[in-house]
Amino acid sequence: MKVPFVDLPSQFQALRSELEAALAPIYETCDFTLGGAVGRFETSFAAYLGAQHCVGVANGTDAIQLALRALDIGPGDEVITTANTFVATVTAIYQSGARTVLVDCDPISYNIDIEQLRAAITPRTRAIVPVHLYGQPADMDAVLGVARDHGLRVVEDAAQAHGAYHGDQAAGTLGDLGCFSFYPGKNLGGSGDGGAVITNDGTLAEKLRSLRIYGVGEPFQYALKGINSRLDTVQAAVLGVKLPYLDDWNRKRFAHAATYADRLAGLVKTPGIVNRATEGRLPHVFHLYVICANDRDRVAAELAERGVATGKHYPVPIHMQPAYQDLGYAQGAFPAVESYAAELLSLPMAAELSDDQVRYVCDSLAAII
Ligand SMILES: Cc1ncc(COP(=O)(O)O)c(C=O)c1O
Questions:
Q1: 335-340 contact pairs (CB < 8 A, 24+)
Q2: CATH code at 308?
Q3: Is the Cβ atom of 183 under 6 angstroms away from ligand 1?
């Protein structure tokens, strides 16, 4: 049996006629950037999350960069995030001009460690960027508590957590600003790059609307030094078609994750699900389902021989990447992230996977391990 890591072709076939109907008018009017579908998607996504404002941008990395810049965070400032994230979180902080301060992850949830976060605060710290890794919100009660105690801003990296809940609030709506990626493989993904910043602060939303398009204010007036980070109309239309399906897709991911957890119990370790009350909403949307395996590369190779595709998120931590040696962290600086990086293995995860495919992955793992 073949089990793909994600299954975008099946998703496309299911939505084909809706996508074609949504895209044709854009080509007829040639309304390609920041067109009507962008505003409509921004309104629906903000409503879906229960937030006031959504500002569409070109990708999730820009979303984080522009969120920090909207808060006037830049050169001379420090921004704390977790060493256990995709490189883009740090790319974005670098692009804002601020200095990235990394902290280790909590060895149960693999999200930011709160005690180490507290210990990393200096007089230059301006913001915290918690990452809701794999689809599970970070401990936002604690993050917001630290932020309140120290007068810091919170920019959530919710690029992997569309539709996840922390208590009664959606990931991305708890901090000052929340940032999403709509990269095609995300739980809500476009047909190319896309991103959004969410906020309940109208002034910040207006600033973001200017920053995403060269800093324009009145016509031909540039009060801010912005960038070009428009959300394409085509992407917004695709996202508008997919958004109504997101909760159903997330529930299917959750069910697949339950099968994995059940069948793999005792066989492999997985990052812990820290189940905070969510009143019927999903506390984890399983963008990725990650296990730990001592002999990870052999397990991945043998799964591949049986037709099962896997991934690694992320096998080389940020502080060990050549580009970020200037952050000044030696090997051994973040023991939880480092030991985890050597063992993690992401299993196939998509709403489109069949129950048989998920069971086949479990049976294959049992045979291999
Ligand atoms: C945790 C995290 N942060 C940021 C990003 C950046 O998003 P994008 O690739 O849309 O720039 C991604 C996705 O790729 C991500 O997974």
A1: 335/104, 336/84, 336/104, 336/105, 336/106, 336/107, 336/110, 336/113, 337/82, 337/83, 337/84, 337/104, 337/105, 340/84, 340/105, 340/107, 340/110, 340/292
A2: 3.90.1150.10
A3: yes
